[in-house]
Amino acid sequence: MNGKWVRPSGGSNIIKNNYKMPLKQKIYQKHQSFKDFKSFLKVDIASQEKRVIAILEQYLKNERNHVLASALKALKEGETKNSFKINQYIADELSKIEDCDVTRYIMNRYRYDVFPKTKELDKYPPYLQIEPASVCNYRCVFCYQTDKTFSGKTGGHMGFMKFDLFKKIIDEIKGNIEFLSLASRGEPMLCPDINKMLEYCRNKFLGLKVNTNGSIMSEENCRMILSGGVNTLVFSVDAANEKMYSKFRVNGDFKKVYENIKRFSAIKNKEYPKSRIITRVSGVSYGDNQNMDDMIKVWGDFVDQISFVKYNPWENVYDAELNDIKEPCSDLWRRMFIWFDGKVNPCDTDYKSTLSLGNLEENSISKIWTGELYENIRKQHLDDKRLNVSPCQRCVVL
User: Fold this and answer.
1) 126: nearest Cα among 96, 99, 106, 97
2) Closest CA to 91 of 75, 67, 114, 79
3) What does 5-20 look like in DSSP terms, one character per residue?
4) Which residues contact 218 (CB under 8 A, 6 or more apart)?
5) For the packed helices 219-227 and 254-271, what is the interaxial angle rounded to 10 degrees?
6) Measured between alpha carbons, how far is 215 from 252 in angstroms, rounded to an integer?
7) What's the rounded Cα separation, in Å, for the pair 277 and 92?
């Protein structure tokens, strides 16, 4: 690594499927990117806020902690410039957290929500995204898997994470990072060691999320997710009928996914009635005909939440036009991405790792997060020089 960023040569081979794409948006606010969100958990936001305030006040009588003190002040004063508050999404998570873990949760939630605004940095990222597999069995129209220079067998980007590397990551972050996802460029359930990975995460984190397209979900997978360390399971489903689903989720089988989600719900209710896991069907808001009411009718009996997230045109960032966005990307202070081979990247929009910051075979997560290469990118963004960094100068994410 020498710290230079060069635009990749050549272009992306994007699959076209005659579906009308939405108009290109100027910017994409990645934080709290829900366009629509529905919860069936019936958790009262005000009650959770009152609970958190009481626990923080009691804790801070005996302990000094500037992050928790800032969180308490924001919650008591209401709207602040840092906009830290408990919304429905956070309230649902808090409802699954024991009182003894609330300070831990708020400490990490505040870092995730606020540090990217204040540009604060500590030894570890607030959020870690680990990729068990870059391989995917789908070619969704809004995903970079449609780029054959990425998903092709000869590109060198496809593979599965080895368990020894996964174990090394988990051993370092336990007690240092509470929020992480097992997902990124591919389908995590394709990883041969996924069940072993889930088992190793048991009782280690407050916010472990797994994202899956739901196409590969054996009963063994279901039970491991429910008995392992998963706090949130997200099924990526964008439609309430087979015709629309097939347009978005190319190679997907709507009926199979429906039955898999239905079976997971049945196993959860029958065998794990006390499970604290939150389940969600989440889709990309991509077409005019997507409807939350239809989603509720089809999926509402099987999951705790349904959401649509805003579409981000990340399937072709290397071919996108240069833009004039100068605001720093929030991910530089919010999350780190670790690919299947241990390569570290500051974002997943740069899916071919132009900005790669090193490899965990040689460095620790903390050393890379606070290291010179990461700081160099942050400084470029802070100094209004985002246009000097590729592919940041073609990306619309803030």
Assistant:
1) 106
2) 75
3) --PPSS-------SPP
4) none
5) 50
6) 7
7) 11
**Bridge pairing between strands 179-182 and 232-236:** unpaired
pLDDT in the model for residue 151: 93
Fill in the DSSP letter of residue 23.
P
d(Cα 147, Cα 149) in Å, to the nearest integer?
5
Long-range contacts of 323-327 (CB under 8 A, 24+ apart): 323/26, 323/393, 323/394, 323/395, 323/396, 324/387, 325/26, 325/27, 325/386, 325/395, 325/396, 325/398, 326/384, 326/386, 326/387, 327/27, 327/386, 327/398
pLDDT 10s digits, 186-243: 999 999 999 999 999 999 999 999 999 999 999 999 999 999 889 999 999 999 999 9
Q: Which is it for the CA torsion 290, 296, 302, 307, positive or negative?
A: positive
| Per-residue pLDDT tens digits for 4-46 | 333 333 333 333 344 444 444 567 666 666 789 999 999 999 9
Per the CB < 8 A criterion, the answer to whether 355 and 378 are in contact is: no
Distance of CA 157 to CAs 110, 186, 220, 281, 301, Å? 34, 10, 28, 28, 38
Contact indicator for 32, 86 with CB cutoff of 8 Å: no
Using CA atoms of 9, 319, 33, 203 in order, give the dihedral in degrees to the nearest 10: -30
Q: DSSP 3-state helix, strand, coil percentages of the chain (rounded to 5)?
A: 40, 15, 45
- In three-state secondary structure terms, 130 is strand
Contact call for residues 150 and 135 (beta carbons, < 8 A):
no
Whole-number Cα distances in Å, 349 to 21, 115, 318, 388: 18, 21, 9, 17
